[in-house]
Amino acid sequence: MNIGRFRVRAGIRDWLVAVGVAAALLVTGLSGQHSATGLGLLGYVLLAAGGLALAAGRRAPVAVLAVTGLCAVGYQAAGFDVAAVAFLFAVYAAMRAGHRLVTAAVSVAVLASLPLAALLSGLHGTGEAFAQARGALQIAWLIAAGAAGEALRQAEHRADEAERTREEAARRRADEERLHIARELHDSLTHQISVIKVQSEAAVHVAHKRGEEVPAALLAIREAGREASRELRATLEALRDDDTTPPHGLDAIPELVERVGRSGREATLTIEGQRHDVPTAVGRTAYRVVQESLTNIARHADASTASVHIDYRPDTLAIRIDDDGKATPDSAPEPGIGLLGMRERVTALGGRLRAAPRGEGGFTVQAELPVERAS
């Protein structure tokens, strides 16, 4: 948005300069009291055209350079003794854009043509047309305009290079920090989670081998260990690969619901509406909301059933997770880190989150994620 506003202002500024230069050239030409003949009218047209052509100098500097040079030679041949002000602006714009060789060649051609044009007008003798003072002045103007354009181009180039260097340094520091976090996570968590996963797998295996009933809590621990291992591995890959690993999204929600069902609870997933593609950020947030809600149900709700409802609306993705746990309106649980994290994710996308006990008992989490705003 800022860039767009800057471009609009730059375009308006170009037109103001063009109109101002054209007006100055016309006023100077009118002060010469030229006759209203065809040649005189052509001179006025060339004066105005040379000034107004500067409006396109930012988009087509070489073309504007050629047009203003031809206009300057043309109105000199028509008998208008007016300085080539528009051509000087065009030289500045072309040098600033980096067209140095073309600018130098066109400038030499125009400088050689101006005395000849003055001779063709019939208003000057040979000595006047080739007067060194006027030639030196125009050369000085050209050198000044070219030098100013080149200096500004070099300054902008250095500024761009410095900005690029800062961005590269910032990316390098971010990469180093990601690798550091990945190493810390690997060293501190991988071993402990692996131990939990292996021990729970072994305990379930032994129970099956003995023909004993496996406690639901042990199954939940095994599933949690598997999920934690997967999540940690995905996180480490994302940190090491600079976010190239595809994140979990809506397609992974059925697996979450299935794992809850395998842990001994009745879990259902309902999808309504015409399914359509949603932005990656929306899908990732939806997955995290469902994951955290089901995790809270397993840990705190003491529920026997859980239901996940996803509704695809034209401009919104609505999610609701219900359970029949022990929560009641009179004994609302204190919001923990998981609920705060869900709220931050949803709010960051411009959505809304409601998490509260249900009147008939149990807990509900409702999230509405705007699809268009997030995209």
Structural key phrases:
12 helices; 375 residues; 5-stranded mixed sheet; 5 strands; disordered N terminus; single chain; alpha+beta
Largest sheet properties: 5 strands, mixed
Q: How much helix is in the residues?
A: 55-70%
Number of helices: 12
What is the arithmetic mean of pLDDT? 77
The gyration radius over C-alpha positions equals 37 Å
Q: Which stretches are poorly predicted, pLDDT < 50 over at least 5 residues?
A: 1-8
Describe this structure in words.
The protein has 375 residues and is of the alpha+beta class. The protein has twelve helices and five strands. Strands 1-2-3-5-4 form a five-stranded mixed beta sheet. Helix 3 packs parallel to helix 5 (100-121). The radius of gyration is 37 Å and the shape is elongated. The two termini are 16 Å apart. Residues 1-8 have low confidence and may be disordered.
Summarize the structure.
The protein is built from twelve helices and five strands. By secondary structure, the protein is of the alpha+beta class.
List the helices and strands and how they pair.
Blueprint lengths: L1 H29 L7 H15 L8 H17 L7 H12 L3 H22 L4 H4 L2 H79 L5 H25 L12 H10 L3 E7 L7 H22 L3 E8 L3 E8 L13 H12 L3 E6 L5 E8 H4 L1
